[in-house]
Amino acid sequence: MAAISAVSRVAFLTSDIILHAQPSGPILSPFAESYKALANTSSRRPSVQSVPGGGDPGVSILRVASGASLASFTSSVTSQIILRLVLLATELSSLPLVLHLAVKDDLSDVLLLQSAFPFFLISYTPQDAHDNALLASRLARTEKKAVVHVFYELADGPVADIAEEDVQPFLLSDKAYSLINWSECVTVLQSPFQLYTNSTNPPALSTLTRTRRPCLPLTIHGDEHPNMVIFVLGNTPSALAIDGVSFVSVGLLAPLSPSHILRAIPLSASRVLVLEQLHRSSTKWTPLYLDIVDALQERRAHSQVSVQSVWFTNIEQVSQHNLLELVLTTSNAPLTSPLHLRNGALSSSHASVPHIPKHESSYTKILSHVFGPRLEISNSPELVPVQGNVATSPEYALGRIRGQLDQRAQLINSVQELMEVEELSTELHRLLAQWLQVRDDDSKNRTIGAQVTAALESSQLSNVLVDRILALKAFFPSKSRWILGSDAWAYDLGSSGLHHAIASGLDINILILDTLPYSSRNAADPHRRKQDVGLYAMNHGDVYVASVAVYSSYAQVLQAMMEADKHKGPSVVLAYLPYHGENSPALELLKETKLAVDSGYWPLYRWDPTKEARGEEPFILDSDAVKNDLQQFLDRKNHLSQLVSSKPQLAAELVGSLGESVKEARRRKAQQAYEDLLVALDAPPLLVLYASDGGTAEKYAKKLVNRAKARGMTATIGTLDSMTIQSLVQEEYVAFVTSVAGQGEPPQNGRQLFRTLNAAALRNEKPFSKLRYTVFGLGDSHYWPRPEDAHYYNKPSKDLDLRLEQLGGERFVDLGLGDDQDADGPETGYKVWEPKVWKGLGVDSVQVTEAEPEPITNEHIKAASEYLRGTIAEGLEDTTTGALAPSDTQLTKFHGIYQQDDRDIRDERQEQGVEPAYSFMIRVRTPGGVCTPEQWLQMDQISDEHGNGTLKITTRATFQFHGVIKRHLKPSIQQINRVLMDTLAACGDVNRNVTCSAIPSFSRLHSRVYEFSKLVSSHLLPRTTAYHEIWLDKKMVAGEAVKDFEPLYGEFYLPRKFKVAIAVPPYNDVDVFANDLGFIAIVDEDGELEGFNVTIGGGMGVTHGNKKTYPRIGDVIGFCTVEQGPLVAGKGYANPAGQWEPRRNARLKYTVDRMGLDRFKSEVESRLGFELAPARPYSFESNVDHFGWTVGEDGRHHVTIFIENGRVQDEPGREFKTGLREIAKVHKGRFRLTTNQHLIISEIPSEEVPRIKTLLAEYKLDNLNYSALRLSASACVAFPTCGLAMAESERYLPVLVDKVEKICEENGLRHDSIVMRMTGCPNGCARPYIAEVAFVGKAPGSYSMLLGGGYSGQRLNKVYRETVSEPEILAILKPMIKRYALERHEGEHFGDFVIRAGYIAPTTSGKLWYDRSGGEGEHREISVA
């Protein structure tokens, strides 16, 4: 890239204005990188502007270059750029302009400029490029004309740069001659004909004087008396020498006088070869070839010289050997056409298939899947080898389609004419008539057309119509014809190929890809407005238009493509695919798409003009937001007004903003606060602002406000982001309370103010001259244990304290810090800081007599809820917000519902001033994980109608729906109820979904265990009728005279969640020891269920950095019979002598450890009224699923299929959701969901096996060609919906597995199971603490790494590294896995090996989980305390 750097530097130092073209794809121009570097090192400051990909460089140059002393345009050559420059060549030629154009190995396009511009220079080496760039700059400046300078961008070599201080004197000197030392020139030039006397002479001589290197029109080397002269235009080896041959390298193409050409061709030469580096040409003979032929016309009277044109494509073809063969083989070659040099052979050219960016194939895959053999992409890159590069242009494809449609029309006419021929047989007449009838029926015309072809080929009928039909037989099947284009059309719609396609009226489909990421939308040239292609097409009136995004709604993409194909006329489908580069991860595309769709930048819609004629609404909005210009179009057409009048409840959701009501509520709140302030002017006002993700900082902020009010102060509270700098300027005393999020980042509801303060500090503003402030921070000094990460501890509070001081604020109390590692956690630091606040405010002497209000806890909310009612029903009716009241969101958990928002777009919505994109997660209660095909179909339908189009199989073997907005909650639950399912107690502080082993081969045993799981679930179900009243519209009995009563739970319910699992040895697929209560099935010699061993005290949840929290596996406390099981469950859930606060220590596992196992067991037996029998022997082999087909004891079949991380969805090439829907329509057995997030299609009768296998194969559900690592992996949901997530999980684990499984395969471990699990936070939903290797999210891209869990779920793992990112994970695992492959014992699993090999110590109990964490011996993490 030395040539680009050299040219960029000269352009930067010589020009007043520089324009550079950005590539059409989402990549950065190399010129842009050079200019950015020069701006940091040079004293020159030219105006540097970019021309966006697809933009018109000619228009941009004309707009900005007028009046400039010298303008430069730099770009890599593309056909589109050259075409745009040629069209405006007349205007551009009269400007002092240099067009620096970089080519790779093809001069085909750039040679079009030779006749269009007065000067054309070409450089082959970086030094040539440097010198010619100087010459071109001087020439353009002095002659006031445009100069084309072409150079090879990949050329490499040394460059002797002109000094920066010499550039301007060189440009500004009046005459060259006064600067020239003629003796030096003669010495340098050495040859008398190298000086030339045309208009380039004075600038060339000036350049020579400065550089001591000539810039020559023609450089000659080789034999002085040749019989052949080879003119070379292209990049060739420098050391070429053949006896009797002279080589002429062309450096100046225009103006190239005949005298210069003739001087280069001695009278001894009888042959001339014109060797040019071209891949194609728009004319038969090139301009250089014609110039040479014209020049030689003067000599024809004296001698005959033959001229032959030869093209080559790459430098390797121009070797000594190949040139010798070329000289010999062209001695008698005809002059009818150019020859093509191919590794010594002369042949026709062959174009290679252009590269298609991998992300763009997602849409072509969908087209292939939907239309199969009917699909024809008319500008497919696959056509290039046959038809040349022009085949990919949309304009060429349009002409191609027009020709094909005309040919099909000829076929139809010929068939109709043939049917009138008397000699035609009855059978053939029938076939022809049948084809005419179904010629537009996609499902039949191909088959019947093949029959017609076969009949005609075997027919003895002699008729010209038969020959014509057979020649057109390819058009018997109807095609779905598509043209793929880029968003370049959006810049010049009226003269683009799109306009011609729309105006043609042809039955043609156009797919336009827009790859501009939402986050880069403002980087485009503001003078080159990107127009809305969809609006343009809709205004035409007869065009089907759809706007789709595969990473937002796959189903909508399918629907739009099928509707476009059915539309008889032009169809335009706008497809969003935002990516920055070829290696952009899919997760990045997903996030960019969500931002664009949610904000309305890329609305999803479908417009079918044929519906209007039928009296139907032609516009269907498939997303929630509409752009303003699209809204104006709809208003003009009066469609939206009709929609609103017919369905007025939709008006606010279609054209309004959910945030307006929020703004109004804030305004009222601010007004009330102001009025309260006026009432209490006698007390010092205090504003408390907090930033909190987990609620702890908010709790301390509220505590401070309550205590301030108790001292007679006027105190108000709000989040940091509820204030602006302008608002803060008006405040006198402000206390800030903030925690830490991620890797030293401020919490979500404080980031906007942090950014604003940072920006103000960069501008050296001092707005807070009156502000007096104090800051209290909450953090964990051990959260980032490595010394290099220590600065993340309480970083937001430290940064905020410093920033406020920089902006002019004055501390009235020094920074206070609360540390989770202190004896009382943050309370220790808070007790020191708070008294200083009262002293700083002058109220430290005030005696507080009234008791401080008790903080409202979950227990208060539950007790006041009237048995889980709260104000949920009223909140559902509130259409001003997409959320429920905070207290109600605690209660909806008991109803199986979590309120969430889309965290991918949270910041963007906050910047827009609207509330978060609230939605809800619904979790179904499915005891034992079993459902019927009818229930599966209902779940599938609900996910499409009310959710985000996907189903999630959870780690508790049930269904979850995500993306359900508030108005869809009640319809969703009512539909769930219609198939005898519910969501009651799927979440909340009660017993949750009871799980049991799937064990497909033990049909009878599974039936018993499954019935037991339903019995336990029913026994522990809450008895409140609130669920039926709120969601199913059931009324309370006797006018509320009968009150609810909870015989098991009471009004407070449980202090925390409670989980029950039932395992059947030898499979521990449910991870029974990870549950609060577990039952291990014990069978007799006949395989009959005798009863269960009972485990107690398991649990996964942990709080990062809080050693009072830890995971625990359950202990076996005895044996119970099947009949006793529900009683044990009813008493074992209790929390005897346990604590309710803090919630993080209220799980049953902590109660067991506080009381001791023996005492706890005695308490349970006391409540039962009988003692548990001694535990029976059992053993487990694994906790993973076993995939593939099995046959049960009853002869029925079962198949376990792999669903990665439980996400059932359709995506290109993997339409699992559709496949399972089709299976459910015909399946006569049941479905079993597993706790490893996979699915068993069970109880298949033998006669139905072939049909199920066919469907599995059709939808690729039978593919088990995965590594054992992937089959054993599991992840929770995490981002973007989980409010507790600190890092990615479900969306990232497959990416990590891709890389780790390569390590496994390198070491021969592809089929060896290693249990790997990942969660986005430490709450442990995917049971990471018993995995052999696990990753627990701490911040985006950062995880704790744990090792040593038991393969059968019988042992906890332990933290090996507190903080790792992906490179560190791979660096750790690569040698570890290699050693495991080499040194493992027979049957030894990975979790056992890392303990034996000394990587990690075994965890013998939950209370010892932190003991010896961080690795063992040489593997120990040094910074772990």
In short:
With 1425 residues, this protein is of the alpha/beta class. 36% of the residues lie in helices and 17% in strands. Strands 2-1-3-4-6-5-10 form a 7-stranded mixed sheet, sandwiched between helices. Strands 7-9-8-11-12-13-14 form a 7-stranded mixed sheet.
Q: What do these coordinates show?
A:
With 1425 residues, the chain is α/β, with parallel strands linked by helices. It is built from 49 helices and 49 strands. A seven-stranded mixed sheet has the order 2-1-3-4-6-5-10, sandwiched between helices. A seven-stranded mixed sheet has the order 7-9-8-11-12-13-14. It has a seven-stranded mixed sheet with strand order 15-16-17-19-18-20-21, with helices on both faces. α16 runs antiparallel to α17, α39 (1003-1019) packs across α41 and α47 (1293-1306) runs parallel beside α48 (1366-1383). Mean pLDDT is 85; it is low at 175-200, 638-659, 677-682, 1037-1041 and 1135-1139.
